[in-house]
Amino acid sequence: MSRQHQCTPGKPIRLAEVSTKAKKLHDDRKEAEQEFVKLRDELVELQRKLYAEGKHKLLIVLQAMDAGGKDGTIRHLFRGVNPQGVRVTSFKKPSEDEMAHDYLWRIHRAVPATGMIGIFNRSHYEDVLVVRVENLIPEKAWKLRYEHINHFEKMLSDTGTRILKFYLHISREEQAERFQARLDDPKKNWKFSVDDLEKRKKWDEYMAVYEDAINNCTTSWAPWHVIPSDQKWYRNLAIGRIVVNTLRDLAPEFPKTVIDLGKIRVK
Amino acid sequence: MSRQHQCTPGKPIRLAEVSTKAKKLHDDRKEAEQEFVKLRDELVELQRKLYAEGKHKLLIVLQAMDAGGKDGTIRHLFRGVNPQGVRVTSFKKPSEDEMAHDYLWRIHRAVPATGMIGIFNRSHYEDVLVVRVENLIPEKAWKLRYEHINHFEKMLSDTGTRILKFYLHISREEQAERFQARLDDPKKNWKFSVDDLEKRKKWDEYMAVYEDAINNCTTSWAPWHVIPSDQKWYRNLAIGRIVVNTLRDLAPEFPKTVIDLGKIRVK
């Protein structure tokens, strides 16, 4: 299996040194898009088998700065997949009930069941990102969380959940362009929030806490992938490849029946 | 705080060497019962403050052989407490949905919120007890669970949950008497199950796996207590003392208002 864009435990990365731009993999974007369409078709087939077999669980975690492409990745890659076998959970500001429990409580509730693909649009990683930048909890508390998270993901992995974590890496300039598009295009207006501009001002602080989260929580059982995401076509292709490769590796099969179905006559 | 009956991390116990009988603490049972009634009154008051303050969470885990006294402990000790602030969760055979997730999924869902006392009547410990005796999962799988459980409880503890774990220790002879009472007394018939006799046949095996669970999962943040439980009055008193001591230690207080309520006139 290809390990492209995958972080390695014990080898910390520096986000500033990772390009947000596509490597020149294809002579043109068209070729990449053709490969992507094929991957997507294969994903649909593999998901059908995963669901029918009911043996494995796949958890996909998506994190990014605002306008980083989380929604777009889900829309492009999982279009065509039977929604019965995929559950997307978007983690927003915690509710009162969620705040009354530990921060992993709502996360654990949402993990995929056997046969399912669970997609986290934001995740427990917000609990070591925004809380640090905004000083919402003391250092003593967030420092413990890296370990909690690694142990939690280890338990999920030990009990049959394959975990794929993606950080969609965009440049500050690319974010500006996408924000501007949200302001200019009436169909995109709804995605814009003034609050996003406040977060944008703290770009470097966010890069620092993302880097810490990625480096502290890249484990053999749940490594982070840093995906160059300035070009959407490349982002989709790169994530598509990793998801499909992972499913190929799980090799789900339609279950074989133990009884001889050929002898059954439906009257 | 008294550490009576509390196990110590790194100092494994042998259940066969722990008496199931009360130590002679009181000249007579009556005196013990008087102390218990006072403790129970104090518990009611402490719980009111815990709920009003909404700061701490208390998790009480009860494990025992059949007829060990889990139900009786809850009934005797928490009678009088406002049920709004106490939630008992009885973990039975997992449902299909629960089986489709990791074994800690249903447990995590049921942990107490701030201000609450959560009582587990059976718990995640069944997942290292019955599954071992009945060979439901391979050794490789249950061996990992001690660590999962310790890490899970550590995370709960780090995020503000005080955890008290009680093993209600009865003798094989005492179980026989209680089973017989369930057979003889029409009001107790419903508690008897033929399946319990099957488990009773495997008494020594159960003692061995309980011992392993207690020794592997006694941590500084969530130690086990082994409570001599052949005499119900002693079991109630011992657990009552530990629960009340723990609440005293958390020292909940009715919240103080920041505004001057004396100036408010209700018209």
Domains counted in the coordinates of chain A: how many?
Answer: 1
The largest sheet of chain A, given as strand count, sense and whether it forms a barrel, is:
5 strands, parallel
- Helical run tally of chain A: 10
* Major β-sheet strand ordering of chain A: 2-3-1-4-5
Q: What CATH architecture label of chain A applies?
A: 3-Layer(aba) Sandwich
Q: Examine the coordinates and then state which fold CATH places here, giving the name of the CATH topology of chain A.
A: Rossmann fold
Please compute the radius of gyration of chain A using only Cα atoms.
Answer: 20 Å
Helix content of chain A: 40-55%
Q: How many runs of DSSP E, i.e. beta strands of chain A? A: 5
Mean pLDDT across all amino acids of chain A: 95
The CATH top-level class label of chain A: Alpha Beta
SSE sequence of chain A, one letter per element: HEHEHHEHHEHHHEH
Q: Largest interface by residue count?
A: A-B, 26 and 26 residues
Which of globular, elongated, flat, extended, rod-shaped describes the shape of chain A?
Answer: globular
The secondary-structure class of chain A comes to alpha/beta
Q: What gap, in angstroms, lies between the N and C termini of chain A?
A: 48 Å
The oligomeric state is homodimer
Beta content of chain A comes to 5-15%
